[in-house]
Write a structure and sequence with these properties.
Layout lengths: L1 H24 L15 H5 L5 E2 L2 E2 H18 L3 H25 L4 H22 L4
Antiparallel strand pairs: 1-2
Helix pairs in contact: 1-3, 1-5, 3-4, 4-5
Length: 132
Amino acid sequence: MRQKIVFVLLILGIIDSIYLTIVHFHPGALFCPSIAGVINCHNVLTSAFSDVLGIPLAILGLVWFLVMMFIFFYKPNKIIRNIWLILGVGGILYSITAQIIIKNICIYCGVLDVLIALTVIMFIFFIYEKKL
């Protein structure tokens, strides 16, 4: 059952990341109402924090989920798996910090952060149970 949950989390993360990547290159595709000046996806997705070393954060998120899908099915070296999990946590911290600095929240980014966090937590359970 947990493996099905992880698979669904990974698929949802890939879908959200693809959408955010599309929005990065075609901002008109964004559907996110601005609510009370706090929720404003446009401000977050067009901020200086939306790129890391010139790479859109959405693409980095997509790569993270695709690699996690590979790790899920092929169970590579534990060091690679653990480094990738740590990178996911780092991505969450970066995203949350950026949104705090910008003083706006992006719903899609928040969903992505939650999906990454749940995926990392599920992988930790698998590691604890020695299933990975």
